[in-house]
Every structure is written in structure tokens, then in C-alpha cells.
Amino acid sequence: MSSILIVEDEISLASVLRRGFEAEGLRVDVAHDGNEGLRLALSEEYDAIVLDVMLPGLDGHRLCATVRAAGLWTPILMLTAKDSEYDEAEGLDTGADDYLTKPFSYLVLQARLRALLRRGGRARTATIETGDLVLEPEGKRCTRAGAEIQLTAREFDLLAALARRPGVTVSKGALLEEVWDLPSDSDPNVVEVHVSSLRRKLDPAPATGERLLHTARGIGYRLVPTHGGGA
Ligand code: CA
User: Fold this and answer.
1) Facing residues of 106 across strands?
2) Distance 139 CA to ligand 1 centre (A)
3) Which of 61, 80, 102, 166 is the most exposed, fewest CB within 10 Å of its CB?
4) How far is CA 35 from the centre of its chain?
5) pLDDT band at 229 (very low <50, low <70, confident <90, very high)
6) Rounded to the nearest whole angstrom, what is the distance from the C-alpha of residue 8 to the centroid of ligand 1?
7) pTM of the predicted model, to two decimals?
8) What is the CA(7)–ligand 1 centre distance, in A?
9) Which residues surround the ion ligand 1 when the cut-off is CB under 5 Å?
10) Omega of the bond prior to 56 within 30 degrees of 0, cis?
């Protein structure tokens, strides 16, 4: 079943869209402000995001740019207001895949969303940058404050899974699924061992003593970006 995130502060429009998508058999989450939308976009997996531009908290363009900077390529359909100061070019610049001007017909939205779901997200090959950490999935290259850090492929994938959601606690079960392709109730020891080896290589940063990897006891791990790594 495909799952969709709707980020729209007009409550009535959001609920019309939710009912329409659910009637088509899609799983739907709704956020009514930009910060909640960003939190969901980074912590859950969606097949597409319908994103209003004018939002309280964090506007749609900044939300979109932040999601892309985190290396997530979930297809995004932007909803823009007709007389808004924002234009479609700006939406596409920040990484949206398509846009629709309000008011729009539900049938047009449905067709555009179907097209995005068919196309799917682009491969996760975009460089991930968070604080002074840079991860290049292409060659599994990791640098912190400009200094290269040698990681194994598995360590790289684990660090990338955390770096795509900076500040968000990711459970050991979610990491087992995403990094090892194992059921989420598998023995978490393999995750703990790899986090320990990442810590030996990354923490604390020699110049500042800052730590990148934090433990949420009994839950999982969180990467908090650091900025003073020495370069
Ligand atoms: Ca709005």
C-alpha cells in the first residue's frame, strides 16, 4: 500500500484530500504545520508528499529543501497559491517534482499524484550534508570538517541512515530493517556493535570534543550535527 504525507494548514482542504486518497486505498498522514510536516517526512517513509507552500512554522520551500539536503528523494507535489509571491520555478529549484496552483480540481491532483507514485523517488545517491559531516553515497566516502574518515560499507550505511534524519531518534528496529534488511525484531546486537565502532572513529571530535552520535536509552540512536570539527 502506498503511503502519502499531506502537509496543508487549511484543515478542510487537508481532510478532503485525506478522504479522497484513503478512498483510493492509500495510507495517509496529515500535518497542519511545516515543523510537524518536516518531522514526519524525516522519520516515516512515504511514497509521495503533497506539500502546501504557505504554512505556519516552516514554509513549503524550506521544508522541501531540508528534506532534499537530508538525501531523501520522496516525490513532492507542491501546492501554490495563484497570487502568491512564490512561483513555480522556486518550488522546482528547492527540489519539488511537480506543482499545482490553487484552486485545483481534485481529479487533476489525483492524476499528478498517480504519475509521481509511478515514477518513484530518485535513487538515494545525493550527497548528505549535516553540520560538518559530509557523506557521498556514490563512493561511500565520509568526511568530517574536511578530514576523510575510513568507514566500512555497513558503517557508512548506518551513519547515512542517521544523518538523513538529523536530530531524530531512530529505533534499533528501524535500523535493522533499513541497513541490514532484517526484521525489526531481530537481535539488536549487530546495531550496537556498529554504533560502537562508528563512535571509535567519529567521537568525540578531536578539536572540540563534540559528539555526533547520541543514545536514546532503550530506544535507539540520534545524530546531532556538529559544527566545530576543526576545519
Ligand atoms: Ca496554506
Assistant:
1) none
2) 40
3) 102
4) 13
5) very low
6) 6
7) 0.57
8) 9
9) 9, 52, 54
10) no
pLDDT of the residue at 204 = 87
Residue 51 identity: L
Ordered domains of the chain (ranges, CATH)? 3-120 (3.40.50.2300), 128-223 (1.10.10.10)
Dump pLDDT digits (tens) for 100-149.
Answer: 888 899 989 998 898 888 877 655 567 889 999 999 887 789 999 889 99
Compute, in angstroms, the gap from residue 128 CA to the centroid of ligand 1: 29
Contact 5, 40 (CB under 8 A): yes
Query: Residue 49 pairs with which residues in a beta bridge?
Result: 5, 76
What digits encode the pLDDT tens for the residues 218-227? 899 999 999 8
Here the cell at position 77 is 507535489
> Of 204, 189, 208, 202, which Cα lies nearest the Cα of 162?
202
Yes or no: say if 76 and 97 are a contact pair by the CB < 8 Å rule: yes
With 0-12 / 13-18 / 19 or more C-beta atoms within 10 angstroms meaning exposed / middle / buried, residue 79 is buried
Ranges of H-type helices in 97-171:
106-119, 153-163
Residues in the chain: 231
pLDDT (tens digit, 9 = 90+) per residue, 66-112?
A: 998 887 888 999 998 765 555 555 666 677 888 888 889 998 999 88
Count CB neighbours of 41 within 10 A: 25
